[in-house]
Amino acid sequence: MSYINLAYKLYKGIIDRLGDGAALFDGMGRLVQSKDKHSQYFDVPKSSIAIRFTFKKIIRTIYDAGFYAYEFVDVDLWIKERVAISEAGAKTLK
Predict the structure, then answer these.
(1) Cβ-Cβ contacts under 8 Å for 71 (sequence gap 6 or more)
(2) I want to staple 22 with a disulfide (CB 3.0 to 4.6 A). Which of 5, 18, 41, 59 is the partner?
(3) Is the pTM of the predicted complex or chain greater than 0.70?
(4) What integer pLDDT is reported at residue 2 of this predicted model?
(5) Rounded CA gap, 50 and 39, in Å?
(6) pLDDT by 10s per residue, the chain, length 94
């Protein structure tokens, strides 16, 4: 088994054991893996939360679908802030 296949099996196992809203993003903010129930939780089509979609695109889709019960004065600014918070918490292992 190659190192890449082993690494994939390990992180897939981690995601499978996490809660329903778990998602894993790469260093560029693209979705790598998420739980199947993720789209059900946000009540959006499964195709809206697809592998390689950016975090920004996913939260915009969820917002546009009406998941948030309130509206923001400037939704683009709110999304920009959410992306910045996500990126600030991202760590890259070398």
Answers:
(1) none
(2) 18
(3) no
(4) 80
(5) 9
(6) 687 788 778 777 776 777 666 777 887 888 887 776 767 777 777 777 778 889 899 888 888 888 776 777 788 998 898 888 888 876 554 4
Six token digits for residue 35: 């739980």
Assigned token pair, 57: 């695109």
Question: What is the C-alpha separation between 91 and 94, in angstroms, rounded?
Answer: 10
Q: Which residues 6+ apart lie within 8 Å of 81 measured at CB?
A: none
Q: 31 - beta bridge partners?
A: 25
CB burial of residue 42 (10 Å; 0-12, 13-18, 19+): buried
Q: Which is nearest to 51 in space by CA: 72, 22, 30?
A: 30
Match 């917002």 to its residue by tokens. 63
- How far apart are the C-alpha atoms of 68 and 61, rounded to whole Å? 11
Retrieve residue 87's tokens: 């990126």
Strand, coil or helix: 50: coil
